[in-house]
Specification:
alpha+beta; 2 domains; 11 helices; 10 strands; globular
C-alpha cells in the first residue's frame, strides 16, 4: 500500500487548475495501452479486467463478468430486502461444486445454506478443471430449497441439461435433501453463439427481482419463462451502465485536465454505482513493471481529479467513495 505524496489541492482552489497541467503524455512516451488482463476497475469483491469489460460489450461473457453482475445484484438490489435468504453462487464455486466427488468437502468454502430459500448457479459446460475460462456455453440453475426443485434455464436448450443435472445432484448431496430437476423448455432462446451469458444474467435478474423478491412469503411463484422476451443487446447496455458513467466522467475530466484523461485512465478508474462516485488508483508496482515509467504529471492529474471531489490522500490499490 502506497500513498500519493502530492500537495493537497482543496475544493476552494478549483479555479486556478490550468497552471498545474502540463502537456499530456503521448502513447509513444508512455507505452502501450493496458493489456486485456490489466485491471479496469474493482467493484467490491470483483476485480474487472479490460477483457471482462470488452466481453460485456460484445462477446461471450467470462466467469468474472458474470460474477460482477451477481455482485451488482447483491449490492444494489438484494440488499434492499434484508429478510430475503437468497444466494447467488459465483461461477467458480458452481463449477467447483460440479466437479467435486465429495460435495460435503466444500461445505466450509460455500455459504451456509441452512436458512437459504433459493440458490442461483451459473452453469458452464467446461469439462476440464485445468482450463481457465473454459467451456462454450452458459445456462442458469435456480434451486428452490424450500420446494426441493431445481429449475434449469438454457438459451440453447437442451445443450446444458447434463451439466445442470450434475450441479443439481451435487447440490442435493450438499443440502442433504432430494432435488427434482426440471428443464424449462419455454426458456427464451438466443439468436447467436455469444449471448448465452447475457441471457443468464438477464434471466437471473428477472427471476430474482420480478418473481422472488416481489412475492409475498407464502405466495406460489411461477418459474415459467413462457412469453418472456430477452433483449440481449439492451441487456449488454444495462450491464455497461457503471462503465458508461465512468467514461462520461472521463470526458468531463478531459476538459478539466486539458485532454489528458486517456493517460489518467491508465493509472486510475473513476465510476459511479449505487448513487456514489468511486475512485480506484491502480497498483503502482504492476503498472511500473508493464511500462517503462509513469510520469509524475500522471499522478498530478489523478490527484487533481480526485481533489475535485475530496481533499483526502489516496492509497494505491484501494477503492474510495468520493463526495462532491
Amino acid at each position: 500500500m502506497r500513498h500519493l505524496h502530492l500537495p493537497s489541492i482543496r475544493k476552494d482552489t478549483r479555479q486556478p487548475l490550468q497552471p498545474y497541467l502540463n502537456t499530456p503524455v503521448t502513447d509513444e512516451e508512455y507505452g502501450p495501452q493496458l493489456a486485456p488482463d490489466d485491471a479496469y476497475l474493482s467493484y467490491h469483491d470483483v476485480r474487472l479486467t479490460n477483457e471482462d469489460v470488452a466481453c460485456i460489450k460484445s462477446d461471450w461473457l467470462t466467469d468474472n463478468a458474470i460474477a460482477f453482475w451477481e455482485e451488482y445484484l447483491e449490492r444494489e438490489k438484494l440488499a434492499s430486502y434484508p429478510k430475503a435468504n437468497i444466494v447467488l453462487l459465483r461461477p467458480s464455486m458452481s463449477f467447483l461444486l460440479m466437479k467435486t466427488d465429495d460435495p460435503l468437502s466444500l461445505k466450509s468454502a460455500l455459504p451456509d445454506f441452512r436458512e437459504t430459500t433459493h440458490i442461483f448457479l451459473p452453469i458452464n459446460d467446461c469439462r476440464s478443471v485445468d482450463v481457465a475460462e473454459g467451456g462454450s456455453h452458459w445456462s442458469l440453475l435456480l434451486v428452490s430449497v424450500t420446494d426441493g426443485v431445481a429449475f434449469h434455464y438454457d438459451s440453447l436448450t437442451p445443450s446444458n441439461c447434463p451439466h445442470g443435472k450434475q450441479a443439481a445432484y451435487r447440490l442435493s448431496a450438499l443440502l442433504g435433501k432430494p432435488l427434482r430437476f426440471i428443464n424449462l423448455d419455454d426458456t427464451p432462446q438466443q439468436e447467436n453463439g455469444s449471448d448465452c451469458g447475457v441471457y443468464v444474467c438477464l434471466l437471473m435478474q428477472h427471476l430474482l427481482i420480478s418473481r422472488l423478491l416481489r412475492a409475498a412469503a407464502k405466495d406460489k411463484v411461477s418459474m415459467s419463462m413462457r412469453g418472456k422476451e430477452v433483449d440481449a443487446s439492451g441487456g449488454r447496455k444495462e450491464m455497461q451502465e457503471p462503465f458508461e458513467v465512468a467514461e462520461s466522467a472521463e470526458d468531463w475530466g478531459g476538459e478539466l485536465c486539458g485532454g489528458a484523461m486517456k493517460n489518467i485512465r491508465r493509472v486510475c478508474r473513476l465510476w459511479y454505482a449505487g448513487g456514489r462516485w468511486r475512485l480506484q488508483i491502480l497498483d503502482f508496482e504492476a503498472m511500473a513493471s508493464r511500462h517503462s515509467a509513469i510520469s509524475g504529471d500522471e499522478w498530478k492529474w489523478v490527484h487533481l481529479l480526485a481533489s475535485y471531489f475530496t481533499s483526502d490522500y489516496f492509497d494505491v490499490g484501494t477503492s474510495y467513495t468520493l463526495e462532491e
